Amino acid sequence: MAELMFEFRGYNIPIDLLNMTGGGTDSFEAISDGHIYLLREMLRLDSKHNVLEVGCGIGRDAIPLTKVLSDQSRYLGIDIIERSINWCNENINAKYSNFKFVHFDIKDQLHNPHGTRTLDEFEIPCASDSIDRIILWSVFTHMAEHDISFYLKEFRRVLKPGGLVFATFFIINDEIAASARATNRTIFDLRFEHLYADGCFINDPVHPMGAVAYTVPKVRQIVEASELKFRYPILFGSWSGLFPSSATDAGQDALVLYKA
């Protein structure tokens, strides 16, 4: 049987891999356009920047970024799904040699159950003080505190002074949780009723990293320990139904951090 494909800006993307990005074919292009808009608005992304994306998936951001970044800029995408990384190298890197993709074979209950290593065994393959912008869409929403802390400390190492990070989270308090449970605006039935650790709530005890939310004090504690700084106040998204959608709405909540 022929593999089902989705045409996106000159690339034929396997639909099964596309579906693992958290959106289907009906929303893929709109989400991609929204991401690039936010990166330009919130990070002032320009053609000269070196970009690191953690959780790059099948290239939903990398493909449009090939038209944003210059030939002298560098992009590195990291993901735990090997087939997605292979596809990106065979298709995107084949056309744009400054776009590279690396597989982290980290064991993950949902996305890489046969992974053989833990995050602690890896180092982001970038030189210190070499990256201008780091982006993560719906990555920390699937991580325990230990792994988030690992990445933030690595980000501080690889960022240039003044470099920025854009990362989405689920951030929770009693009011947000009550609104999320009442409005149920997402297809994932996000209720966050189960305490997993101090300041951390999960949606499903059977698949604990399926969706993870943190309190504001815990988020601040994690960021402060990394020695990164908040560039803006927390950007609360519309996922819970408590906050209205806006031009800077990432759906999920978002942090913009910087290296002092």
> Which secondary-structure class do the elements indicate?
alpha/beta
Mean pLDDT: 96
Number of strands: 12
Strand residue content: 15-25%
Strand adjacency order, main sheet: 5-4-3-6-7-12-11
What structural keywords apply?
about 260 residues; alpha/beta; 3-stranded antiparallel β-sheet; 7 helices
Folded structure, characterized:
With 260 residues, the chain is of the alpha/beta class. The protein has seven helices and twelve strands. The strands form three sheets. A seven-stranded mixed β-sheet has the order 5-4-3-6-7-12-11. It has a three-stranded antiparallel β-sheet with strand order 8-9-10. Strand 8 (194-197) and strand 9 form a beta hairpin.
What's the layout of helices and strands?
Layout lengths: L4 E4 L2 E4 H4 L9 H16 L7 E4 L7 H4 L9 E5 L2 H12 L5 E5 L27 E6 L8 H14 E11 L4 H10 L10 E4 L2 E3 L9 E3 L1 H11 L2 E2 L22 E6 L2
Parallel strand pairs: 3-4, 3-6, 4-5, 6-7
Antiparallel strand pairs: 1-2, 7-12, 8-9, 9-10, 11-12
Helix pairs in contact: 5-7
